[in-house]
Amino acid sequence: MGIIDFHCDTLMRLYDLxxxxxxxxxxxxxxxxxxxxxxxxxxxxxxxxACFLWFEGKPVKESFYQDALAMCELLKxxxxxxxxxxxxAGNYREYLKNKENGKFSAFLTVEEGGILENKLERLxxxxxxxxxxxxLTWNYENCLGFPNVGLKYQNRGLKPxxxxxxxxxxxxxxxxxxxxxxxAGFEDVFRHGKRPFIATHSNARSVCMHxxxxxxxxxxxxxxxxxxxGLNLGGAFLREDGKSTxxxxxxxxxxxxxxxxxxxxxLGTDFDGVEDLLEIEGCHQMDKLVSxxxxxxxxxxxxxxxxxxNAEKFMKNYWGE
Length: 321
Ligand SMILES: [Zn+2]
Prior knowledge:
This protein is an alpha/beta fold. 40% of the residues lie in helices and 12% in strands.
């Protein structure tokens, strides 16, 4: 089954390894959850690779923004080395062209809008560098707004620069990602954003109480705007005991579909960003989820929707044909 995955932290893992002198692992083959070899052998269609910036650490270069640009370059050079099987994509048309040529598509995203440091022009530069989704916040307050960490910032919405960035992202065709964003921030994106938006890696809060998961109201609003949410495989977001099980994944999928309709759910694994013991151990085992759906009453068309068609439809709606 073709898979489109809206979120992983593989690029950060590799960037960390390489900048600390470990050159044994690379994107083609490594010991993490995702590498190109396994993605391609499993027939995956597209992977969104996040440049994740961890503000608690120190930047490798002069700023986290420079680190993000370096991560973009890292992905591009690794993809270029395997151009027979993989290519970068920046919109639906490029994705489709790759698919028709039997090539796997790699997309670039940024997880931590704080790297903008109140500079709107950085959005243009990130767009020129191929970034197509930005997760507005990670777990820290930043120049755009507030995260959902516990629920202490729940009622703090976007900052003035957050609204400016939202407008510019809509113009540039960079999708706004509300995973990690505060509840009030979500509401601001819903009300003021002109285009569909995404929660790249969030589950359902009424199935598992984690503030990073979406409430039923949010799922409905996301669907109303033509957005999607990617199922996160991390145990903390699946079950309150923190176990990552396929059974729990099915419960979240069913719930999200029942609240927001069958087209609002897709995949956003969070591979290489979650440390729990995963029943699905990496990108090469997504067939475990597919066969569980097959054996638990999902229709063929629902399964295709969850795996890649809903994602394709979102890309087509957002970036055009
Ligand atoms: Zn995340």
